[in-house]
Amino acid sequence: MAGPLAGVRVIELANERCAFAGKLLADAGADVVLVEPPEGAPQRRHEPFLHDVPHPERSLSWWHYNTSKRGVTLDLGKAEDRGLFLQLIATADLFLEGEEPGRLASLQLDYPDLKGRNATLIMASITPFGRDAPRSAEPATDLTLSAGSGMVWMNGYDDHSLAPVRGGGDQALNTGAHYAVMSLLAALLFRDGTGEGQHIDVNIHACCNVTTESGSYAWLVSGATVYRQTGRHAATYATISPQVRCLDGRYANSGVPPRTRTEFASLRQWILDLNLQDDFPEILFLERAMESDFVDLGKIGDDDEVTAIAEAGRNALLLIAAHLPAYEFFIGGQERGFSVGIIYSPEEVLHDPQFRARGFPVSVQHPELGRSFVYPGAPYRFNASPWAITRRAPQLGEHNGEVLAPLKDK
User: Fold this and answer.
1) By C-alpha distance, which of 69, 85, 88 is closest to 77?
2) How many CA atoms lie within 13 A of 340 on its CB side?
3) Cβ pair 17, 204 in contact under 8 A
């Protein structure tokens, strides 16, 4: 079966800012034609490399971000290649780029130039601060965008003598790419109804700022400093830590505290199943909570009974975790309806039975190396239009013949 974006044609100018957006579209079935300069995109030189051997065809970053795409090379500084690029644009539904503001205009390849060739074209530009913003000319990296937007400040540990933590994997660029994809899909729906194309200007810094969720809004509303907290939302006040240490020394997240009659009953039964009731006199508070439909945790600190019940719920999870290995605590909590989760390293995720059962690790063939490699798969699953990595990332100019040759014959 074809993917949900089958029949959609995308032209992507190779750039680390838009690579993830192109991957999401390509793995969902769109025909993504990736345009690189003749010497290859800079991302081909990003570490790490297969077997630590630097080579433009061995960058694991390049492999990950460019699955399912076809690749061609064009020198947009040459009139002939610009002509071929314009012919590609004439066939496209979407155009994705992350160039420095002003570069495409200098080549007469910006949206006002392109829509004359393709009136229904939808173009997305992904830049650090937006193309026309006051800061549009400022240099930026994934690190500076993560820091400036507030993402880094709000990630780290309760111990503020430790520095904040920057998330790995180009999260700022990926966040901008996600917003670009959501905008492109909305624009496609709009075009289906109106026949009109449009230009989408994605500001990575702004995307990251709103992705801090309650953090930015808490500061705007309260005017008070928002502090990072281990494994939970930053806030202007200390919240209960969800991390619990399990019998095997590993950590798990205990998730949202129990609030309903059913949840407290389930937690009480878990205590009984493990024969821990003699070690937990607070079980009386769990039983008291079972008499109410809902415990309003917003009253913690103001209502003595609610405070005692909430503390009993937390202490019950701590006690259970102390008597179970982390994985058993994780599975047991999930089976009982609690949003608990084991804290994994990235490589452990690929071996988790649930992730494997859902098909998250996928095998991608590399014919040029005579073997396949395990890749992270889809974060979502469609019933009728499957997601799939259809091919490994293109080698330099690999599809020039099948994509560009027919254009040269016209």
Assistant:
1) 85
2) 30
3) yes
228 Ramachandran zone, left/alpha/beta (phi>0; psi -120 to 50): beta
**Nearest alpha carbon to residue 113 among 95, 135, 98:** 95
Q: How far is CA 232 from CA 2, 253, 313, in A?
A: 39, 10, 18
What three-state secondary structure class fits 153? coil
The encoded tokens of residue 252 equal 């798990």
Most distant CA pair in the chain, distance: 84
Tokens of 327: 């994985």
Q: What burial class does residue 331 get, using C-beta atoms within 10 Å of its C-beta: 0-12 exposed, 13-18 middle, 19+ buried?
A: middle
Q: Which residues contact 228 (CB under 8 A, 6 or more apart)?
A: 153, 154, 155, 156, 157, 158, 160, 164, 234
Distance (Å, whole) CA 56 – CA 394? 11
Rounded CA-CA distance 92/178 in Å is 20
Mean pLDDT score, 86-95? 97
β pairing state of 94-97 and 9-13:
parallel
Collect all residues with Cβ–Cβ distance below 8 Å to 260 and sequence separation of at least 6: 293, 294, 295
Q: What is the pLDDT of residue 344?
A: 92
- The DSSP bridge pattern shows strands 31-36 and 70-73 to be parallel
Tell me the backbone φ, ψ of residue 231, rounded to 5 degrees: 65, 20
CATH number, domain 9-212+357-408: 3.40.50.10540
pLDDT digits (tens, 9 = 90+) for 33-69: 999 999 999 999 999 999 999 999 999 999 999 999 9
- Report helix, strand or coil for 293: coil
d(CA 112, CA 117): 10
Distance CA(202)–CA(283), nearest Å, equals 52
Of the CA atoms within 13 Å of residue 386, those in its CB half-sphere come to 8
Q: Name the DSSP letter for residue 263.
A: H
